[in-house]
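Practice problem 4.
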């Protein structure tokens, strides 16, 4: 191995709150972390507008600004942040090997995976146009902006039901747009939406178009999958909750994943089934999915990487 290819002590893959927080802690522990940012530098939060629920910002902050702050904080302690994609990993032997999209081989003693998850979207052009201006994939993040207004949630799983129930507490009316005549969600979640007085379920329904005034959402065109009928609902917020896809394609066969593709971690830790490989943030969490929980697990991963290196030496 050439001097240039000397293994890094800590490689972090991903640049959302988990990746940058891991970098802050790893850099302060003198692990000289290198962060590969991925294509969407800053992660999912760079596509949101206001973030009002991250502790420490009493007046709120925009997602892109918050991610810039986290990046600057990681760099302040010497993290080496590189814009690039990891295409391939080999965790079968130590040091671990990863290959970047420009075919560069990197070796590392520890790897923190913080590649996040991607919200699934319906794929409508109008959904893209109004993203951040009425269209959202996170009720916990954006629901507050629609207090006292009418909104819709698409999906029939636990997330959709949870988001509809959450929104029902602050919005006037919530439409739940379900493509079949039944919900996929657990019975307890079903019970919550079926018993909320201000949630109306639109069964057998598909969103044909999100309607807006050019700036913000004002409604949605809903088609009935059985009758073919069309109706417009007047809403100000449109929440897509049809599932997330963890960004774990390159880790298949390298580290243990659950049946939905999320990285399995040992409960109460960020350790994976491969010693020296840790996972933090949404890539290993389909339940909380918050910036602050991602940051928390990023911190855990860096501390665990540091301890693992110390024990091993
Ligand atoms: P799921 O995959 O469970 O559900 C996705 C829902 O979206 C389904 O109802 C599906 O319909 C619908 N859907 C998918 N694609 C489309 C589309 N193109 N148009 C319209 N509707 C669509 O995802 P969730 O995010 O709800 O849940 C993921 C996992 O996380 C699950 O295991 C869930 O139990 C878990 N979870 C647990 C929670 C808890 O315990 N508190 C909270 C949130 C999630 P169809 O049913 O027809 O396929």
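Answer key:
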């Amino acid at each position: 191995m050439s001097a240039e290819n000397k293994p890094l002590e800590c490689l972090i893959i991903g640049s959302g709150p988990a990746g940058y927080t891991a970098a802050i802690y790893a850099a302060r522990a003198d692990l000289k972390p290198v962060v590969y940012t991925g294509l969407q530098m800053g992660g999912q939060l760079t596509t949101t507008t206001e973030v009002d629920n991250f502790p420490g910002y009493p007046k709120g902050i925009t997602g892109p600004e918050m991610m810039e702050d986290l990046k600057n904080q990681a760099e302040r302690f010497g993290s080496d942040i590189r814009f690039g994609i990891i295409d391939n990993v080999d965790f079968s032997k130590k040091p671990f090997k990863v290959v970047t999209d420009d075919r560069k081989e990197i070796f590392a003693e520890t790897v923190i995976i913080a590649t996040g998850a991607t919200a699934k979207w319906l794929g409508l052009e109008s959904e893209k146009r109004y993203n951040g201006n009425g269209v959202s994939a996170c009720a916990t993040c954006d629901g507050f902006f629609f207090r006292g207004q009418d909104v819709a949630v698409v999906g029939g799983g636990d997330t959709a039901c949870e988001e509809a129930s959450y929104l029902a507490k602050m919005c006037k009316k919530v439409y739940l747009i379900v493509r079949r005549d039944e919900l996929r969600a657990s019975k307890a979640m079903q019970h919550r939406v079926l018993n909320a007085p201000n949630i109306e379920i639109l069964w057998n329904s598909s969103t044909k178009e999100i309607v807006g005034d050019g700036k913000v959402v004002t409604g949605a065109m809903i088609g009935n999958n059985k009758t073919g009928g069309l109706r417009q609902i007047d809403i100000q917020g449109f929440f897509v909750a049809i599932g997330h896809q963890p960004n774990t394609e390159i880790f298949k066969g390298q580290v243990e994943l659950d049946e939905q593709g999320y990285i399995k971690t040992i409960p109460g830790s960020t350790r994976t089934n491969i010693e020296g490989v840790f996972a933090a943030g949404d890539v290993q969490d389909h339940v909380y999915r918050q910036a602050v929980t991602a940051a928390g697990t990023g911190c855990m991963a860096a501390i665990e990487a540091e301890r693992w290196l110390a024990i091993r030496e």
